[in-house]
Amino acid sequence: MSLEDLYREVILDHYRSPRNKGHLDKPDYRAEGVNPLCGDEITIELAFDGDQVSQVAVAGQGCSISQSSASMMSEAIKGKTKGEIEDLTKRFRDMMSLDGEADIGLDPDRPGAVLGDLESLQGVRKYPVRIKCASLGWNVLLEALDGERLS
Amino acid sequence: MADLSHLKADFPVLSNGVHFLDSGASSQKPIPVLEAMDNFARSSYANVHRGAYKLSVAATDAYEAARERVARFIGASDPNEVIFTRGATTALNMVAFGWGMEHLGPEDRILTTEIEHHANLVPWQMVAKRTGAKLDHIPMTDEYRLDLDAYNEKLGPDVKVVAVTGMSNVLGVMPPVRSISDRAHEIGARVVVDAAQLVPHSPVMVEMLGADFVAFSSHKMLGPTGIGVLWGRMEALEEMEPFEGGGEMISEVTLHDATWAAIPHRFEAGTPPIIEAVGLHAAIDYLDSIGMEKVLEHDRELTGIALERLGDVPGLNIQGPTTLEDRGGVVSMTLDGVHAHDLATILDEEGVAVRAGHHCAKPLMRRLGVTATARASFYVYNTEEDVDALIGGLRRAGELFGVGE
Ligand SMILES: Cc1ncc(COP(=O)(O)O)c(C=O)c1O
Fold this sequence. Notes:
Shape of chain B: globular
Radius of gyration of chain A: 15 Å
Order of helices and strands of chain B: EHHEHHEHEHEHEHHEEHEEHHEEHEEHEH
Oligomer: heterodimer
Strand content of chain B: 15-25%
Bound molecules: pyridoxal-5'-phosphate
Helix content of chain A: 25-40%
């Protein structure tokens, strides 16, 4: 395992140019989370059109792993229903879990892979202290979806 | 150069070649410390101040010998002024609660600083809330020093206690405790020094430091975890109420009341860290065999080398003074475009152990305008090679993240 496997170009690209950065005018759901140990912060806002996510905004600050994971996540959940998002979250968590199946077809170059860019984060699993960085945005996302609808 | 490279072999953890640059968080333990604790536990261990049997007497002697050794190390004239605690944090809480709750009220002000570790800030916040006292802070200048003009302005008759660090665990700066204490004493305030970083890295003679209370931890000075010291001037200790009640700290107990044992036992409720006291004793012997002047000189030399070479790393910012005066061996840094946690991961992969984060000094991080830094801290076992490994790792991080492209 080399550092290049952890810090893949896709990750660095999302870190330098985070997608869907900022805030929504009228979010339907909103949550924020902090990792008190390292101080990373992420706020997620979601707007729905019917049962599908129509807009996502991510704000916060922190390391390349937490911020790129949230950025990629924001792209992956657009247009998805709550059920589909929960499914995606489960896949992501399985990929991150130390005892989960290591190779569930997670070749980052595989076309049409379900997690897409997110698969580039699988290298994080080899750095257990950083898994919580990669998971932060997802925990906030689930919290947002479980929260009160704002509008 | 104060060449101490022969010492590395005394530290078993370092035998795998790790470049350990996190002694500011906790130091490694040399073989003489490990052996002293092991021998004691094997041959002379029992509870202290209780048994009439020989083993307990031997253990009590060892424990009290450690107290005398600490007193000699920090230049305290009376060993009874040395109180064993669980660590610097407990020592500072003992003062904040044991002294603060007795002597502070709504008319009073507590003066601490913007650069404190949470251990010398949060207890005062808690006591301020409970007593109604106001909490005020000595600010930091843009040169990373305490603003002494502002201090003089803030000092007023309502200031009852000044709580200040002896050496910042983030910036490395060593504030002028002596003159801060003298000014505080002119208006009758007590002075509390968080010496968790100072005592391990610099000769400290408490009588000359001028403070009334001085707190530090064994684990940052080659000793074991679980023990620390609160030194207090006897007249200041006499103003303090015990913060914990229980065994060992009483003189007489009835069902409804109790009177306190003499100082220091009054402040040592329950079974103390006995084996740890023996370890701390051995750690002090080890440090004194090097000489604290030499320890300071060695740390400063490595810091000087590091500051110079760090200046050549593209995108690197030192969070703290770049000169050596009144400064110890702690260097905090940020690298443009690379978060401190990523830096620590990359450095770890290169065999360099540094700390990344807010270093328990969130208000200072805010003042510095950063959320986290990477921090390298030096101690007796570090060498120039460790600095080179750090520089190499930082360059590698810069390349990986395309800093300066
Ligand atoms: C300046 C300073 N004060 C206080 C502490 C707290 O020491 P301890 O955790 O040993 O109680 C530390 C170490 O973390 C420190 O660096």
